């Protein structure tokens, strides 16, 4: 696996290098009549913003067992330095230089000389170090309290709204002015190193202050935890099961990466709704199904596998299968509702967008929740929650591929025939009615799912025990 991943990373970096070498020609063809260097400058901050999001999703945290070192004459400062410096060995830190150096050698040096080149590279280094250490610090904070993740994405949404909706700021203009100044004034780059140094010190001090056994290894219990959700308490045992699964999602790498991807999919509509070519209902149905049901689709396709490590404990406990399934429905309902609420700003593109989103939200709660739980009874693949989700095929089996077919195709089998005969609104109404029927008959489908689960639970448990 390491060899395959190494080859894949090398191939991707080679692609970056080729793109960088032809960057001047690409920019001149894409933006004719504009200075390619100024155009390149205007995109730098956009790149580092996307780089920060990708690091948050994909970059692994450096780990070290602290216990063997705390009684030795090794200072906490040295351990924190070791963790900080060893984390630098990542392709994320190499990519910005591969992307910029060939272009700068071809375009910048002939115009402004070698001094401007090194000033530019120093500024790129400063932003790279900032993103690297800030993302490590943020991921550690998120591990302790999920509100940090919500705050991070709320800030990104605020920046997006100020840039593209309210037109208050322009990141491209700031980026262009900043790097034009870097080229002309060499003293500005060392000043930018301050933000990289600040991120390093923040991460370093956080590591240093938490290198204690009672901080790292002892679980502290209190009346309320950082992940307790009072809203779920009203559902009794079902709410407790749902709250425990939400804790499982927030505390483990792979399910947490699924949640992060779901939040990123909230921007999916911008691909279509900004394009005048897509002015019908069909693309809204597609986007609405994904955005309001992305958690059901992404998380639900591995349902039960998320709990494979303690599935035997669930079977031997006093938890009834009916309550177990109700907790799954409750998680889907809560998080899909949250996703739907996040799509409300798309009303900017017209009321019909929100209406279709609401229809697909009803469809997801009614039909797709039942589909994913039905296929969960056919899934016997184990998942290690501690492993990241990037390029990780553990737990993927035939049921995941088969599941994608009815999830994606079924609503279009209802909508497209009526749309073809110029009755798209009747097609949407049919989707909404079917979704409501399934929601009101959920108790019937719940009993069917429980009956199937009771016949297959030992087969599922046996599959989860296999490494």
TrEMBL record:
Pfam families: DUF5687. InterPro entries: DUF5687. Keywords: Membrane, Transmembrane, Transmembrane helix. The chain crosses the membrane at residues 7-28, 40-58, 79-105, 117-134, 146-166, 178-201, 257-274, 280-300, 329-348, 354-377, 398-420, 426-446. This is ABC-2 type transport system permease protein.
């Amino acid at each position: 696996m390491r060899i395959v991943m190494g080859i894949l990373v090398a191939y991707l970096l080679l692609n970056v290098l080729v793109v960088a070498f032809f960057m001047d020609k690409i920019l001149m063809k894409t933006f004719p009549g504009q200075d390619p260097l100024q155009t390149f400058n205007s995109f730098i901050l956009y790149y580092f913003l996307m780089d920060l999001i990708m690091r948050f999703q994909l970059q692994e945290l450096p780990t070290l067992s602290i216990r063997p070192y705390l009684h030795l004459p090794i200072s906490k400062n040295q351990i924190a330095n070791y963790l900080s410096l060893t984390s630098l060995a990542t392709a994320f830190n190499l990519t910005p230089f591969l992307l910029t150096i060939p272009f700068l050698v071809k375009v910048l040096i002939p115009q402004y000389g070698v001094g401007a080149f090194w000033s530019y590279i120093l500024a790129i280094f400063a932003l790279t170090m900032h993103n690297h250490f800030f993302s490590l610090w943020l991921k550690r904070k998120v591990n302790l309290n999920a509100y940090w993740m919500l705050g991070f994405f709320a800030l990104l949404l605020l920046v997006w709204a100020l840039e593209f909706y309210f037109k208050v700021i322009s990141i491209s203009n700031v980026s262009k002015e900043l790097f034009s100044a870097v080229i002309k004034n060499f003293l500005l780059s060392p000043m930018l190193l301050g933000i990289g140094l600040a991120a390093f010190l923040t991460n370093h001090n956080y590591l240093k202050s938490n290198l204690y056994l009672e901080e790292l290894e002892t679980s502290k219990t209190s009346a309320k935890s950082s992940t307790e959700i009072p809203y779920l308490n009203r559902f009794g045992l079902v709410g407790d099961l749902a709250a425990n699964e939400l804790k499982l999602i927030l505390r483990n790498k792979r399910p947490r990466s699924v949640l992060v991807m779901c939040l990123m999919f909230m921007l999916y509509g911008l691909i279509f709704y900004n394009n005048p070519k897509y002015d019908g209902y069909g693309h809204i149905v597609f986007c609405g199904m994904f955005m309001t049901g992305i958690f059901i689709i992404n998380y639900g396709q591995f349902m039960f596998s998320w709990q494979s490590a303690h599935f035997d404990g669930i079977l031997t406990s006093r938890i009834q299968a009916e309550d177990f399934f109700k907790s799954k429905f409750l998680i889907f309902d809560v998080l899909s509702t949250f996703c739907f609420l996040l799509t409300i700003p798309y009303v900017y593109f017209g009321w019909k967008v929100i209406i279709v989103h609401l229809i697909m939200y009803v469809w997801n709660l009614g039909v797709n929740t039942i589909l994913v739980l039905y296929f969960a009874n056919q899934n016997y693949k184990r998942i290690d929650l501690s492993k990241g989700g990037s390029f990780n095929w553990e737990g993927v089996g035939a049921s995941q591929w088969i599941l994608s077919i009815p999830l994606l195709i079924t609503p279009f089998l209802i909508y497209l025939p009526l749309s073809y005969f110029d009755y798209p609104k009747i097609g949407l109404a049919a989707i909404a009615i079917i979704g409501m029927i399934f929601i009101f008959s959920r108790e019937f489908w719940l009993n069917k799912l429980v009956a199937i689960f009771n016949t297959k639970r030992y087969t599922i448990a046996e599959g989860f025990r296999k490494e």
